[in-house]
Amino acid sequence: MVPPDAVPDTALPDRVEVAVLVTEPAQLDKLDPSRALTVIAADHATLAAVPHGGRWRRGRWIDVTDAETMQEAVAALGHVDVLLVSFADETNIPLELIVAEAQSQRTTVVKRVHNSVDALVTRGVLQHGPDAMLLRVSTPGEVVRLARELLERRTEQLDLVEAEVTAVRSIGMGMRGCVDTTDLFEPDEGILVGSTSSGGLLVCAEVHYLPYMNLRPFRVNAGAVHSYVWTPAGRTAYITDLSAGEQVLAVNTAGRARPVLVGRIKTEMRPLRLIECRIGDSTINTIVQDDWHVRLFDAAGAVTNCTAIAVGDRMLAISAVPGRHVGIPVSESIKEN
């Protein structure tokens, strides 16, 4: 987004769209009507001077400072191609109202944000945020950094595989961790948990019927404290390394993975159960609390009590090339038993 006298002379790549902020009608004379531009007017008079049709998209910038200017922004929906809003207050309530009203309109809503934190919060308004955000930066590196942070919050697709159970047994007492999140799991979701970097099994969230206690739809009774859990961008973390505000992946039986925030890790001494599986030539294992109410997904996506899993059963798993350093995959020779 540039002023009228800073429009690039040469055409930019197709994926780069140029917007021009125009503060008075006379500035329109500086623009080439044959160029594909988005012309953002700063007031009604300037907007009225922007021609309809042609190669220009018409837009309006509105500073929302009170209820009256918020209603002005709502009234512009459907009458302009792009609505760019800048808010005086930190609350997201006016943005929520504008985004809600825009659902049935053709107008693209853009919010001006001031930093990467503001952008990440804005992205979650009404779950989806506005159509786009405008961020002023001083270096290209700031854009790269924000893009990386946004990518860490996107939905991923994991390649889940079948793992054949080769051994199941009670192994005695140990510390296990429940991963309590700030989100609610779906019935087909859980967390990938494994003892080695070669892979793990999909452990269910506590969203299925329990006769003696209320459900905990925010929780996965994940496994022994040494275990890896899968996190965004192909990384893992030890259960003991997780803390409030960090992210893990909520993974469903089709492999769709979404980041969820950790609210706390609840660690207690409990009886433990070892479930060992084979994936091709690789052996993996997951250690969970030895109680029937801890459940895992089998290869068909059915919920299975851990105490009912038997040798020969096939479970839903993830397979990975072994070798990690602080959760990051590395290429090295490694043997884990």
From TrEMBL:
Keywords: Amino-acid biosynthesis, Aromatic amino acid biosynthesis. InterPro entries: DHQS, DHQS/DOIS_N, DHQS_C. Coiled coil: none annotated. Residues 163-336 form the 3-dehydroquinate synthase C-terminal domain. Residues 26-147 form the 3-dehydroquinate synthase N-terminal domain. It comes from the Bacteria. One of its GO terms (molecular function) is 3-dehydroquinate synthase activity. Pfam families: DHQS (PF01959), DHQS_2nd (PF26558). The keyword Amino-acid biosynthesis applies. GO terms for biological process: amino acid biosynthetic process; aromatic amino acid family biosynthetic process. This is 3-dehydroquinate synthase. The lineage of its organism: Bacteria, Bacillati, Actinomycetota, Actinomycetes, Micromonosporales.
